[in-house]
Write a structure and sequence with these properties.
four-stranded antiparallel β-sheet; extended; alpha+beta; 6 strands; about 290 residues
Length: about 290
Amino acid sequence: MFDRLKPIAVSALLMGSLGAAPVLAEDGAPSADTVVATVGGTDITLGHMLMLRAGLPEQFAQVPADVLYTGILDQLVQQTLLVNVHDGDLPRQAILAMENERRAVIASDEMAKIVETVVTDEAVQTYFDENYLNSDGVTEFKAAHILVETEEEAQKLAEEAREGGNFAELARENSTGPSGPSGGDLGWFSDGMMVQPFQDAVAQMEPGSVSDPVQTQFGWHVIKLEETREKGAPGLDEVRGEIEEALRQKAIEARITELEEAGTVDRKAGDALDPEVLNQIDLLEE
């Protein structure tokens, strides 16, 4: 958030060396409309500051409030100074970025309106009854794998593991996947958490066995299934958050489908393009 400019205020904020924030007036509680500064006739409000604060990374929660206040206000003042003296047309990239930002903000506001009434205790209970109440438990798998580039490599490693080789050590020495340094350990997972060829292979294995080479979009895998366990159907409180999110998503998808059917969406021009065109960032400079 603070990396768009390099003013003294920003560097001082990061060093924690700014002075105390100005004291608010005592004649009333502040609101989002409270004016905190005026720059050449342009008001900066507490609301502007709060929006900037809300978008900061989590680590800024550790910054003292007075330092954060001054740093945010200084950035807004400096930006406004530059905006006020800007002359001429904005570059294409800036215009497109502003259009995308406006689209995203308005769409987000509209989605908030769509979902504000869909999550009720009754809706949550109904969703739970239909999707969880009578469901069987799920099988969870604990496995490790070795990821390599070729089937030949995978076959050789599978044979070594079956002949008594230490699977974890083989993974540490050969796997190109992120789990390699930890011996290929993938922890516990259930259906849907792994890519389908991998999941299908694991589902057919017996605990303690090593698979034949399995190909996915990531390469070739050798899998060792450590153990399995059955997890019973969850209670309502365990999945309430998932259900609420599902209800929100369902409402948004239904509304978008309704709008698409009622309106006109023509994708023909875009469908004619080669998807690789997205890599041609230099088109923005033409």
